[in-house]
Design goal:
ABC_transporter_ATP-binding, 11 helices, P-loop_NTPase, binds adenosine-5'-triphosphate, 6-stranded mixed sheet, 14 strands, alpha/beta, Rossmann fold, 2 domains, 5-stranded antiparallel sheet
Length: 324
Amino acid sequence: MSEAIEVDRLSRRYAGGFEAVREISFSVRRGELFALLGTNGAGKTSTMEVIEGLAGPSDGQVRVLGHDPYRERDVVRPRMGIMLQEGGFPGDLTVRETARMWAGTLTSARPVDEALTMVDLERRADVAVKQLSGGERRRLDLALAVLSRPDVLFLDEPTTGLDPESRHNTWQMVRGLLDSGTTVLLTTHYLDEAEELADRLAIMHEGRIARTGTVAEVVAAQPATISFDLVGDLRRDQLPELPGSMLIESGERITLHTDTLQLTLTRLLSWAEEAGVELSGLSARPASLEQVFMTIAGASGAGASVGSGVGVLQEASTRTGAGV
Ligand SMILES: Nc1ncnc2c1ncn2[C@@H]1O[C@H](COP(=O)(O)OP(=O)(O)OP(=O)(O)O)[C@@H](O)[C@H]1O
């Protein structure tokens, strides 16, 4: 069996009938890091809780390592490591005492000092938890999550509050765990973190999965951007027809969104060469994960459907060759 986590048409409704998760499906292969991204309130935590076996699904099915994580929690829980957003441990215990206490609940924990070293907390082992900084607490939460040598590790916003060096150290540690075969399900608000770590990802919005795939696949579905300035004698109505691209004029700046970056750029540059025009401030770049995210987040605000890709932009623009 190569799938560590299988989510099949999962829905979760809260008391009162609000549907926080709406028929989502995805799977996570063994040894893979899958990132769950989304706007605030998109349903990431509601989804994670069901996969972790903390709540049952309202509809649909979840399997973790081939088992139902809610009904067969006794079987699945020992093989999971869960890093919660708030660890909630007593502040008067030291870091080492806290880790020892947690290790005492596990059947085959790794040595406490090894776990503290993994998260760079060994020098803080004798400090009371209440004296730790926010970032150090986060790292303690992570140490506790890996104490059981889990097959499946759940990381809920693991680097929130960490300084850049600690973030990079955490990423290194997660890569090490992946190399040793651990499967990781990550939620994060940092898109660079997903770009760094995720083999595949899903972007959730309003309870549904709006996009899923590798970072490259998700980004490829989003139009690329070409921009330049209208300066000197150059006017918008002189520009050539560029089929399949969408033009936005903002002051002197012209921005083109296109699904065919190479073709559109070639046509634009050929025209500029023939016409003897210098395209001042020219830049051409593929879409970023951030643009995909913003399109999804903005789509609902503009009344466009998620998945239409450029719904928001279309309202404020025209297509080249049709009215320019
Ligand atoms: N116990 C609950 N009862 C009712 N509604 C809830 C409950 N918990 C969460 N919700 C609602 O479900 C929706 C999804 O919340 P959830 O916490 O899963 O989102 P999220 O993607 O994790 O958000 P964030 O990024 O802000 O943590 C939100 O509208 C939230 O208000």
